[in-house]
Amino acid sequence: QVRLVESGGGLAQPGGSLRLSCAASRISFSFYTMAWYRQAPGKQRELVARITSGHVTNYADSVKGRFTISRDNAKNTVYLQMNNLKPEDTAVYYCNANSVNDYWGQGTQVTVSS
Fold it and tell me: Which of 27, 42, 62, 68 has its CA 20 to 30 A from that of 110?
């Protein structure tokens, strides 16, 4: 069974940083486009950042210059480095793996508050 397990969420102050990790198992990780989505209360899930199998990245306008997505194919892990966090970044962050199939993690809560 495919598993995506997120970690690294928590509470951060405005201007602070967090690093999310998503460890994948039982997929051919290097062939998948990996992405981070987020969903804030009362809002639709939105794409935050994506990295293809060829390491091409794209970001939501709201996080450009603050967030960095990366992947380590040897560890089957994708990361999201989040800097200069803002209260509006508060959401549940989900890891996604997309190729022929589409897989989701359970999500990790990120709260940005003073």
Answer: 27
